[in-house]
């Protein structure tokens, strides 16, 4: 495949991945109403693990070593445990458009952790962009919370920090074991610990949940927890990380659009304005200069 065609395909796959991720909060909002936080937040991993296991066996993927396993634990803590359970809990009380504005900080959080993991020092421009973006999110949350932050807002902010660390760790590890393999092994690692709490939370009443609830849950398990990562990581590998990652700026606006189209949420100009400010601060922050830490002199 020619370089130009490969890059175009990479951009297309990256767009597919972002669209899939953008449907995660709307799907969570629907599923959690009928299945609860534990089943939606952790149960999706148990289902995804079955699919992932089949793929890993068919492809005869090599087992990660002990050092890689430690990094995978961090990825699993963020992408498999922390983010799903925190967003599932938050979506019980917050509209999707609200969550979209808060999660718009994710690329900036990822960049920040990536800087530190690579031994780099973010510039003043990065920190100013971070402060502006964070302030816009907090002001937005205060406005909708009538003068105070809700616990659900704090859960979403924690989800951003945890997933940012997970993405940074996963991106570093992907250079060794492959891109989508990172989330695949993370799902395998996390699933066994979730079987008991999910099993205890399952009830016969869930069998009577409407079709849209089951479709939403299966979407979260099969697409959001695995296939979306395959498209996203494959796109960055083919089209270039820096170029394809820019598509992620569309995600909060896609979330808002899907919330309007599928959930009937009314979107205010204040919400759109807050999202624009946050996304602009993320763009500025991700493009800010970075300097390397000075190497320590070797001892004679």
From TrEMBL:
Any one Gene Ontology cellular component term annotated for this protein: membrane
Subcellular location field: Endomembrane system
EamA domain location: 9-138, 151-284
Record bears the keyword Transmembrane helix: yes
Major subcellular site: membrane
Lineage: superkingdom: Bacteria
Family statement: Belongs to the EamA transporter family.
Entries under PANTHER family matching the protein: EAMA DOMAIN-CONTAINING PROTEIN, INNER MEMBRANE TRANSPORTER
Protein name per UniProt: Multidrug transporter
Source organism per UniProt: Lysinibacillus odysseyi 34hs-1 = NBRC 100172
Lineage: Bacteria, Bacillati, Bacillota, Bacilli, Bacillales
